[in-house]
Amino acid sequence: MKSTPAVLLLTLSVLCRAECVCGKTVKDTVQEWNRYQNACLVKLNSDPTPSGLFCRRMFDMYACWPDGVPNTTVKVPCPWYLPWHDQVHTGYVLRECGPDGQWHTNNTSRTWRDHSQCSADSTKQREEEYQILILAYFRVMYTVGYSLSLTSLSLALIILLLFRKLRCTRNYIHTNLFASFILRAVSILTRDALLTRDAPEFRDNSDVSSVLSDQALSGCRIAQVLMQYCVGANYFWLLVEGLYLHNLLVLMVFSENSYFCGYLAIGWGAPVLFVVPWIVMRYLYENTRCWEINENMAYWWIIRTPILLAILVNFFIFIRIIKILISKLKAHQMRYTDYKFRLAKSTLTLIPLLGIHEVVFAVMTEEQTEGVLRNVNLFFELFFNSFQGLLVAILYCFVNKEVQSEIKKKWQRWRLGISVLDDQRNTGSHTPQGGTGLQCHYDHPCQPDCPEGSSSHLCLDAPPPSAQLSLHQHHHPGAKKGKAYCYISAKKQVLNGIDLPAPGHCGVEGVNRYSESYC
User: Fold this and answer.
1) How far apart are the first and last CA of the chain?
2) What are the residue boundaries of the G-protein coupled receptors family 2 profile domain, all occurrences included (predicted)?
């Protein structure tokens, strides 16, 4: 038999699912184990020492053993600190005392002990082991999801901060949303790492009391608090995205800069208002383990209620936006197939941005489900939450045409600079070769990620065909926001196959001017 400590501690420690067993928490069990140990040591010190050859009395971190007579099997009642002691109170733990006065050992040189009579119900134990296995698979899944989200969001955040032309209110909100997703992923992965570190399979018997002490759990509790704040901030930045998009589509006069400070207060400040009271209540009335188990659900509702309200508000905003899109698309008198396609595309794009899928999980709470339904609910919740950041980074950065355009221009400028340097080295001249050509430029400001089908005065479309013909991937020092301009180049440059001059079309200053209220 294994010589590890109580099966309870092993079971409760795996995957940090220290759930209550028979109404006892892990902390309660450890406290009773300490009392059992103290009572055992007092008894061992007070009992008289026998004469002759005998196996020495001891406490092996599981049961209290008296002196043993050689060539006999010593049995003691199942320890009373076990949470399921009422089920096994008639059972015994067994040891063998050898003829040499030494306790019998197994092949691993550990003292042999048979505590099978003190184990929990085998059927229930198999169910718990099966649930632990499922949770292990879930943990691998969401660890992969959060890791991919963390990597993609970090790259997307760098891109949005790197290019100046992408700096506007809408992208400032995106960067804060990306940052909240990043903090959420980091906090969850950090908390899991601390929980795994602080809840090993107790191979060393001396670790039983130290690992589960309040001092050892302080770092885990801090990580748990930070995780609750980051998760709350993530939900409220999803709410900010919904509020911003709603204001952009509904309000006739919308000053973005005046609202941005309010957005910051909602996104980063609102979670403090419910995380701090939760910390106080947990510390005063439920200061157990790593604060990851909610015995009194009233304290958990301190955090859950504001998050549910944010989810519901975003859901109503989503419905309002869909209604606006339907009216806009109908007004354009589109064909029915195109109409359905654009509406579906806009809807699917908004779902990850606003976190609409959370409505389903808000209704199906963990305490209301059990068995297979609970595992299915948990799987989809963990899957969507962990991969949502990756999906948002792809939709609102990597496949965004505005971002792709800026990256393409940066790449072409870099290639142009290399080509000019190569020509200068080869010819020794600072004058590039080529003919005369007319170059037209269109310098556009940051454009919003509006759903397809919105009106042009609300969602800024691409430049008209005439302006697109005159676009040139080169930034002129005299460029002004929202204006098309031209200048005559003395030479036509053809470098590395890139034909720089545009066709003979010039935009006029003021043509296709963008909405001044946006950037």
Assistant:
1) 71
2) 39-122, 138-400
Res 266: pLDDT? 93
- Which tokens sit at 76? 């003691």
Structure-derived torsion over alpha carbons of residues 279, 222, 391, 448, reported in degrees to the nearest 10: 70
All domains of the chain, ordered by start, with CATH? 7-120 (4.10.1240.10), 126-273+301-399 (1.20.1070.10), 429-499 (no CATH)
Q: Which range has the top average pLDDT, 5-19, 33-47, 215-229, 356-370?
A: 33-47
pLDDT band of residue 479 (cuts 50, 70, 90) is very low
Q: Which residue has the higher pLDDT, 370 or 115?
A: 115
Q: Which of 288, 12, 15 is nearest to 133 (CA)?
A: 15
Residue with token string 């309002």: 320
- What pLDDT is attached to residue 236? 94
Which comes out higher in pLDDT, residue 106 or 33?
33
- pLDDT score of 498 more than 80: no
* Residues 285/299, Cβ–Cβ less than 8 Å: yes
Confidence label for 333 from pLDDT (cuts 50, 70 and 90):
low
Distance between CA 259 and CA 247 in Å, rounded? 10
Under 8 Å between Cβ of 190 and 219:
no
Please state, in angstroms and rounded to a whole number, the distance separating the CA atoms of residues 390 and 251.
31
Segment 278-299, tens digit of pLDDT: 999 998 988 877 787 777 888 8
Whether 62 contacts 6, CB under 8 Å? yes
pLDDT band of 25, cuts 50, 70, 90 = low
Rounded to 10°, the helix 336-354/297-331 angle is: 150
Residues 6+ apart with CB under 8 A from 448: 170, 248, 459, 460, 518
Q: What does 449-513 look like in DSSP terms, one character per residue?
A: -PPTT--TTTS--PPPHHHHHT--S---TT--TTEEEEEEESS--EETTEE-SPPS----TTTTP
Please enumerate, as own/partner, the contacts of 194-201 that have beta carbons within 8 Å and a separation of 24 or more.
Answer: 194/219, 194/220, 194/223, 194/290, 195/16, 195/220, 195/290, 195/292, 196/16, 198/290, 199/13, 199/14, 199/16, 199/18, 200/13, 201/4, 201/10, 201/13, 201/14
Helix (H) / strand (E) containing 24: none
Per-residue CA distances from 504 to 311, 426, 437, 467, 479 (Å) = 53, 31, 8, 11, 19
* Residue range 246-268, pLDDT digits in tens: 888 787 666 667 788 889 999 99
Q: What CA–CA distance (Å, rounded) separates 212 from 31?
A: 10
Identify the band that residue 517 occupies on the pLDDT scale cut at 50, 70 and 90: very low
- Is residue 43 a contact partner of residue 243, using CB atoms and an 8 Å limit? no
